[in-house]
Each structure stands twice: as structure tokens, then as C-alpha cells.
Design a protein that fits this description.
heterodimer; A: 220 residues; alpha/beta; Rossmann fold; six-stranded mixed β-sheet; three-stranded antiparallel β-sheet; 8 helices; B: 228 residues; MetI-like fold; 10 helices
Chain lengths: 220, 228
Amino acid sequence: MVKIENLVKEYSGRRVIDIKNLNVNDGEILAVAGANGSGKTTLLRITSGLMKADSGFVEAQGKILFMPQQSYAFRGSLKDNLLIGLNGKDKKGEVEEILESMELKHLSDKKAVSLSGGELQRLALCRLLIRPCSLLLLDEPTSSCDARGTELVVDAVKKYVEKHGCTVIMATHSPIVAAKCADRMIILNDGGIEADGEPGEVMNDPSSEWAKSFIKDWRT
Amino acid sequence: MDSFKQAFDLLFSFDRELLRIIGVTLRMSFFSTAVSCIIGLPLGTLLGTHSFRGKAFVKKLINTLMGLPPVVAGLIVYFLFTHYGPLGKLNMLFTVRVMVVAQCLLITPVVTALTSSFVEERARPVIDTAKGMGLSGRKTLFLTLSESRGMLSSVVLNAFGRSIAEVGAVSIVGGNIQWKTRVMTTAIMLETNKGNFSFALALGIILLIIAFAVNAAASFTVKEKSDG
């Protein structure tokens, strides 16, 4: 379980995270929605340990993996990218399988820097999904993907959760991803939680006027 | 054109004094670049990746030191190592070692500032991605260095370029002593003062050839590695 309490983060006097209490259960996929600058990325970076909060705490046990918003292609082929920090011999079959599942197998020997934005984003996700973890943090994992790419990412995340039973927190700008992938959804506004519930419920019956207006804009 | 011809004649005459000057120049530049990079690369990485109290002041200080005039650096080191200075007992004045010290004072801030701005802008995605993959600090550092080698090599070459072309500080602390501390730049200065302009220009051309050869060798090495 991930426990977040009284979490505060400010940039130059502007409060970007102000979360009183947020618990995410084991095996749960939580979608974090919100406008630009609402604190989604900051929340994920603090949870991953890449950034320190000004106050409050995040409690998460086990191995945490984090996919940043900007996907990076390391030198070498797609296979090389997947095997960074792993034993190549043990993982050979898994590498092929995971690249196949993301429809990247035909590019496996190509240089990763030659990939398109959507392909690179799928590769970045593959690099994480080849490792087991207890908490997977994804910062807009489908922002560069087309409809097919989005579908592949959603399926891969769901399968990974089924296999490893891990918790997922995913920032997203896509209502489709939230609806198809998440068990629960929160909407952030100025760093605070404006709505919290099952995605269909939050999207169809937002709890506040602000959330209603956000969902309306979001869907269009 | 005469100067070019003279430069090549001089270079291929294997004149003992010229070879000695080239040797001292390369030795001094190599060690001052190495020491500056040993200090400046980790310091720049630290500045680029960590936030701490007084960071803005440290950055301003480094930026100010980047503009330190070489003669002032030479003068500071001269006072430190002169017989009545705090380090006078080391008896290092007018040696290549003290020339390296003076050059480090000039080059380390450059290496630190360039590394810091590079790490802040360009290495951040590598570090975030590697840490996000759950890699250890050591593996993250290795990966960051490996991914940044092109940029880091340009920082090192920049430092080497500054070192090999510097004249003010080394002439003050080195004294331009024949067979001992004379380097290409101080030799050029001497020949110019003597009115031997074409010989001075020939030495300048040789200096450029050396700088070009070192740059080409370094670029070739980096390209070889990245292709492999």
C-alpha cells in the first residue's frame, strides 16, 4: 500500500502539492488527472524519491519504478536498452516477448535513437515492465502514442499488474486511458485532490463544480 | 607563406629546443587539464544534480572565477609560492608544477561551470530514466558518463585548449626559463618581443597544429567508442 499524508511542495512560493491524505491499495491502478501545472508530475516525482517534499510523507514499500514524462533513448539497440542493468542471458526470451507485446520486435536491432516519439514511449515502458516491482509510477505514458499505441500500453500495464500484483499510479491526460486502465481516479487542482473515485463515477458524476467543468473540457 | 614554410621546416628539423618546448607545453597542459577535470567534473555534476543552501552563491563565485584574468591568477599563485609566501617552503616557483597550479586556478572554474550547466540541462533525463529503472547510484553514474561522453569530451578539450593557449599566468609563475619552463606561448611572446615575427608566427602555427592534432585524436576516440 502507498500512504501519502500531509504532503506539501512549493516552487517559488507557489504551492504545487497539498495532499492531506491519499492511500493506494496493493494491486490498484490509480489514474491521476488534472490540468497542466496541477501537480501530477510533482506527485509522481516525490513518490518515486526523485524529489523531496517540503513536508509530509510518502510511505511505499518494495521496489519502485518510475517512467518520466520525457522518454529517453539510451545508446544502442532496443534490445540493449531493455537489458541495461540486467543479465542478458536470463532475460533473452522475456525481451523478445515484451517487444512483441508492444509491436516493437521488428525494430529490436535498430538504434533506439531512431524511434519515433510513440515508439520510444513504448520502449521506455518496456524497460520498466521487464523488471518486477511493487509500485509502478507512470508519468503520461501515452502522451505521444496513437490509438493503437495507447491500446498496447493499457494492455501491457494491466497484464503486468496481473502478473506482479503491483500498485500503479499513472498521470494521464487521456480519459480513455483512465477509463480503460484505472481502477480508481483522482483529479488534482492546484496540488489538492478535487475528486476521488472509480473512473466512470468521477467522470459521470463529478463531486464539485470545478471537477464538472474540468471533465467537460477534458472529454472535448 | 614564409611563416608556414618556416613552421614546417622547424617542426621537421627536430630541433632539440623546440621539441623540449613542445614537450613542456604538452606536459603542463595534460596535467593541468587532468587535475582541473578531476576536481571540476565531479563538482560540476554535484552542482548540476543537487540543491543545497548557498548553491546560488557557489555558482556566482564559479562564474566570477571563470572571468579571472590570467595575470591575476599568476600573481596570486606567485605570491603563494614566492620565498616569503605561505607555500614558499615548497620551493616550486619557476617550475612546471607551479605552472600547472596556476592553470588549474584558471581552468577548474570553466570545467565546473560547463559540466554543471550540461548536467542540469542534458544529463537530467538520463539520470531520471536510470533512477526510474531502479538502477543503483553506481550504475546510474556509469550510464550518465557513458551517455554524456561526447559532451564531457568537449569540456575536457575546452579545458585543454584554454591550457595550451594560456600565456599570462604561466609566464609570471614559470618565468619562461629556457630548457625548463618555456612553453609555446611564452616562446612566441619572447620571439615577438625580439622582433622575430615570422619565427613567432611559425611557432603559433605549430601550436595550432598541436591543438588540432589533440582535438582530432580526441574526437576520433569518442566517435570510435560511440560507434561501437
